[in-house]
Design goal:
One of its GO terms (molecular function) is tRNA-specific adenosine deaminase activity. This protein is 25% helix and 17% strand. It has helices spanning 6-11, 30-47, 101-118, 207-211, 221-231, 235-238, 258-265, 344-354, 365-370, 373-388, and strands at residues 15-16, 19-20, 59-66, 71-79, 81-83, 98-100, 125-127, 133-135, 139-145, 166-167, 186-188, 195-197, 218-219, 247-252, 290-292, 308-313, 320-323, 328-329. It has a 9-stranded mixed beta sheet, with helices on both faces. The two termini are 39 Å apart. The chain binds zinc ion (2 copies).
Length: 406
């Protein structure tokens, strides 16, 4: 686990003259700060992880920054690069379908929001006139990813265009010089073996089809992050309680290219048409985050043979280890494999226990999602826009998988 020990990942980061000098994170430039707090948290979590499960990983984290004092903290972290095998899917919401690091970090972020609704010791939230919560203006959220997200953001070779150190959200300059391959939506492959394009006339997938050997198709992380830049990070259920929460920045440790990242994660939405923001419900917009690469050394490389994943949310006493190919927690001594704390069923349980009318016991997960009118309008406008631009059609999970109750 040498790559993750503080001695290498944290201490040897900033050099002044020939001597190594530790600069406190709050004095660092934003992308270094986001990377440093993520690497520090990762090192801490790996010390709590059985040695056999530690390896090179794709890492992602949502980092909260208090801009009054430049303090940053990891609120959720995920590692992994797998999707569930088609024959392991279930209808009861207990299985994680997508265990790519970014997706686990985002699911953990929802747990953080639920926890904050119960207890907000630092008074981070305000309630607006619409009765929805929003974070105070000095609180911002940032995404760290150890490598460019799978799909459109990672599909480039050096000759496709120049790279750079980063760009602010209002200075995006997307590279779009190969319309036949760039900007297309893509689906993940089950074994972490890259992504494949989705056709505009792609037919939906069915539950029986997948269970009986059909390939499960899940949208790439570039496509999902692109959608978060329209609908926010809070998801459908929490959109009833929170104003959309957008990423202020994205820090990418490896394969960083702002021209390709900006195309894949935000700018492709409006490449050929009028701004989508004009047709979104109040509070929603197309968000263009600041992009940057840390100067410090971070994790590199991935162990392709392993399907172990890890997740942690602020407040958890230890990381949870799951197997991305089963979508369940690992079997260990005295403990059978079981649902992750990030699975849809658990998130529905948090939702019902914290927010909802407890008497509506028969309401399904899907019904709760359908209640989120503005979120659904924004999501549909985004999907429609992607289709109109011939980037492909969004592949939905089979309906059977959202009919469970809490
Ligand atoms: Zn991915
Ligand atoms: Zn952009």
């Amino acid at each position: 686990m040498g790559d993750y020990l503080p001695s290498k990942a944290i201490l040897g980061k900033v050099m002044k003259n020939s001597a190594s000098v530790m600069i406190p994170p709050h004095e660092m430039e934003l992308h270094d700060r986001v990377a440093t707090v993520t690497m520090t948290k990762l090192a801490e979590l790996l010390l709590q992880t059985p040695e056999a499960l530690v390896g090179r990983k794709v890492v992602a984290a949502i980092v909260m920054t208090d801009n009054n004092n430049n303090l940053s903290r990891v609120v959720s972290l995920g590692t992994g690069n797998r999707c569930v095998h088609g024959n392991k899917i279930t209808e009861d919401g207990t299985v994680l379908h997508d265990s790519h690091a970014e997706i686990l970090a985002k699911r953990g972020f929802k747990r953080y929001l639920y926890a904050l609704l119960v207890h907000d010791p630092l008074c981070l939230l305000n309630k607006g006139e619409d009765e929805k919560f929003r974070f105070k203006p000095h609180i911002t959220f940032h995404l760290y990813i150890s490598v460019a997200p799978c799909g459109d953001g990672a599909l480039f070779v050096p000759s496709d265009g120049t790279s750079g150190n980063g760009c602010r959200g209002d200075e995006h300059n997307p590279i779009f010089n190969k319309p036949q391959t760039q900007a297309l939506m893509r689906a993940k492959q089950e074994n972490g073996e890259g992504t494949v394009p989705i056709m505009v006339d792609e037919v939906g997938q069915t539950y029986d089809g997948i269970v009986h050997g059909g390939r499960l198709r899940i949208m790439s992380c570039s496509d999902k992050i692109c959608m978060w830049n329209v609908v926010g990070l809070q998801g459908a259920l929490l959109s009833q309680v929170f104003q959309p929460i957008y990423l202020k920045s994205i820090t990418c440790g490896d394969l960083f290219n702002p021209g390709h990242l900006s195309r894949a994660l935000c700018c492709r939405i409006d490449l050929k048409r009028e701004p989508l923001s004009r047709s979104l419900p109040p509070g929603y917009r197309v968000n263009h985050p600041d992009f940057g690469v840390p100067k410090i050394q971070t994790t590199r490389g991935v162990e392709k043979a392993r399907s172990y994943c890890m997740n942690w949310t602020m407040g958890d006493s230890e990381p949870e280890i799951t197997d991305g190919s089963t979508g369940l927690t690992l079997k260990s001594i005295g403990k059978p494999e079981g649902p992750s704390r990030l699975c849809k069923r658990k998130l529905l349980w948090y939702h019902r226990s914290i927010i909802s009318d407890k008497s509506t016991t028969m309401k399904t997960y899907k019904m709760y999602k359908l209640d989120a009118d503005d979120y659904n309008l924004a999501k549909e406008a985004f999907r429609q826009r992607m289709m109109e631009q011939n980037y492909g059609s969004w592949i939905r999970m089979p309906q059977e998988m959202e009919r469970f109750t809490g």
